[in-house]
Design goal:
The complex is a heterodimer of chains A (about 260) and B (about 375). Chain A is an alpha/beta fold and about 260 residues long. Chain A has nine helices and ten strands. Classes of the chains: A alpha/beta (about 260), B alpha/beta (about 375).
Chain lengths: ~260, ~375
């Protein structure tokens, strides 16, 4: 592996996106956006369906080529050295599956070979609490287990950056909380995350900084706290109903935080 | 400027081949279509060929015993059926008999032989008539006391072995299985991998797209070669399929099968790229495979097709494959005799891979 060569003025910026444009025919999916992601943070991209989140993510992942603009991942241009970028990032695709006829250990071994690295599959499964499912087939896993396995698969090549596209969509509250904890744990190892989500609560609890996208444009980038404070400072007032607990609190209080799979 | 090295592909290729192979062996469809179907087919064809073809001749029950009847009964290619005239006539009209031979003896010790044939079975009718004419002439000569006729007909058998339907059917069956596995297996297999985003996830690794597809293809190649071995083994062991040069013929068959399969896989990749889902793939794939099964001499020789259709039929990829295999098995040739057909196959393959490269998508 080659050591990253980062520019001096961007030592803490592991991703730099400059004037990114992506057109599909006449439709502009991503319209001239620029942002950067700092090393070690969890960066959230929020937006309604069709905002351009997944397209932006896939261009950063080298799965799509931009119409215009530059994307630098760990100081490497995604167009010029896509293979080098691919070997430094971990990817979880939205609604992606795995070979249904292979068990988890076999899948991890196959991915390791595809990244040209050696792994200890059991240790990786342990990290995502799936060691007892080592011989299970991927399509026999529950939604939460499948997402945890996706995360394990992103870790195979010891990536510097992990991209998660709507990782908690369709999960029950326990599985979602569990996945957040897992992401926080991995973050502690110094890995940077880029996450897309529909869930504001997820963005607020998990993300260090958030970009809000709509219609292919980034409307604003800030920390969740700053977003809220700015809104309040602008004179925004929400009708306050004094509520000591939310329905989610009720749900978790009744059903417990223990993770359910099956 | 070699700052960034390209990732090694060899290990990835082997891993993809191995795990795609593992996945396929665990898939029940592989066994049903790849192994059970060919075995059932080859067994049926083997049994058809087993009895050999005989002419069914009806002789009415009331026919008196005489030399001519004994001569007919001694013929190995005739199967005699004795019954009452009415039921024999019924069978003749249905085409289940080649003909009815009525032999009548009159007062003056003379015989009259009548052959009843039906338009339902014209070719067999003709064979039977010629055969009977021969018997009658022979008997006439003998009865007339001519021991030394001016013209003698000597028939010498050239072929040392009897050609049976299995010898024709088995090569066709290998082609049929390989084409099915290569096209149906690849198209539906890859469409599933595309739809489930499994291919896209693999594409997100530093392994090159070509390596991913080559690994997939190699695993199918292995499965299909095992299939070929199985069909050959059953053919040779159970139905005494004839390998003219023994093990050499066997090895040459494997080489031809591998080349054929690589060409057929090109079709698989092309249609897997063209079709977005199983529903659109189904008709496309059938459109390409069914005419080939019928026109490529898989089940019956292309000679029996109309002349205008033959140039098309003879240049189909499966035809090239069948011709090459029959050159080696039926005609006892070697690989160098199959070069024109293998060239045809390779050209088809190149065209399909070029098309596939243009149409293939990862999701």
């Amino acid at each position: 592996m080659v050591k990253s060569v980062s520019k001096p003025n961007s030592s803490s910026e592991i991703i730099q996106v400059t004037n990114l444009v992506k057109k599909f025919g006449d439709f502009t999916a991503v319209n001239n956006i620029s942002f950067s992601v700092k090393q070690g943070e969890i960066f959230g991209i929020l937006g309604p369906n069709g905002a351009g989140k997944t397209t932006t993510l896939e261009i950063m992942e080298t799965l799509q080529k931009q119409t215009d603009g530059i994307v630098m991942i760990d100081g490497i241009d995604t167009i010029q050295h896509p293979w080098e970028v691919k070997s430094r990032i971990g990817i979880q695709l939205q609604a992606s599956n795995f070979y249904p006829e292979l068990n988890l250990v076999e899948l991890l071994k196959m991915f390791a070979a595809m990244y040209d690295v050696e792994v200890d599959p059991m240790q990786m499964l342990k990290k995502v609490q799936l060691e007892d499912k080592a011989k299970s087939f991927a399509n026999k896993l529950s939604g939460g287990q499948k997402q945890r396995f996706s995360i394990a698969a992103t870790l195979v090549n010891k990536p510097k950056i992990i991209f998660l596209d709507e990782p908690t969509t369709g999960l029950d509250p326990q599985a979602r909380l569990n996945l957040w904890d897992m992401i926080e744990d991995i973050k502690k190892e110094g890995i940077t995350f880029v996450i897309t989500t529909h869930y504001m609560e997820e963005a607020e609890k998990l993300c260090d900084r958030i970009a809000i996208m709509d219609g292919g444009k980034i409307l604003k980038i800030a920390t969740p706290k700053k977003f809220i404070n700015d809104l309040i400072d602008s004179g925004f007032k929400k009708e306050i109903i004094r509520q000591e607990a939310t329905l989610e609190d009720v749900f978790l209080n009744l059903t417990g935080k223990k993770l359910r799979d099956e | 400027m070699n700052k960034y090295k390209k990732p090694g592909q060899w290990k990835a290729y082997l891993a993809i081949t191995w795990y795609a192979f593992r996945a396929q062996t665990r898939n029940p469809a592989t066994f049903a279509f790849g192994f059970i179907f060919p075995v059932v087919f080859i067994s049926i064809f083997g049994l058809i060929g087993g009895s050999g073809s005989k002419l069914n001749v009806g002789i009415p029950n009331d026919t008196p015993e005489n030399q001519l009847v004994r001569t007919i009964e001694q013929q190995k290619f005739l199967k005699i059926e004795r019954s009452d005239p009415e039921s024999l006539n019924k069978k003749l009209r249905q085409g289940r008999l080649s003909g009815i031979v009525e032999i009548k003896e009159n007062q003056s010790k003379k015989y009259s032989v009548t052959i009843l044939t039906s338009t339902a079975n014209a070719i067999e009718a003709q064979s039977l008539t010629s055969a009977m004419r021969g018997f009658v002439n022979q008997a006439n000569l003998e009865l007339s006391g001519i021991k030394n006729p001016p013209i003698t007909l000597i028939q010498t058998e050239v072929s040392g072995r009897t050609f049976r339907y299995i010898d024709f059917a088995l090569p066709g069956q290998i082609g049929f299985s390989l084409l099915s596995t290569a096209i149906f297996g690849t198209v539906f297999g890859l469409i599933y991998l595309k739809k489930a985003l499994i291919l896209k996830r693999m594409f997100a690794t530093p392994t090159k797209p070509l390596t991913i597809l080559l690994g997939q293809g190699t695993s199918r190649l292995i499965i299909a070669l095992v299939q070929t071995l199985l069909i050959l083994a059953i053919g040779v062991v159970v139905f005494k399929f004839y390998l003219p040069h023994g093990f050499i013929t066997f090895l040459e068959l494997i080489v031809v099968s591998a080349i054929g399969l690589i060409a057929f896989l090109g079709f698989g990749y092309f249609f897997a790229g063209l079709a977005n889902d199983e529903n659109s793939a189904g008709p496309m794939v059938n459109l390409v495979t069914l005419p080939q099964f019928l026109l490529s001499g898989t089940f019956f020789p292309t000679d029996s097709l109309p002349t205008w259709l033959q140039p098309i039929a003879n240049n189909l990829p499966l035809s090239y494959f069948n011709l090459a295999v029959r050159k080696i098995t039926t005609e006892g040739g070697h690989l160098n005799d199959t070069v024109p057909y293998l060239t045809g196959l390779i050209i088809w393959g190149i065209v399909m891979y070029l098309l596939a490269a243009r149409t293939f998508r990862w999701e």
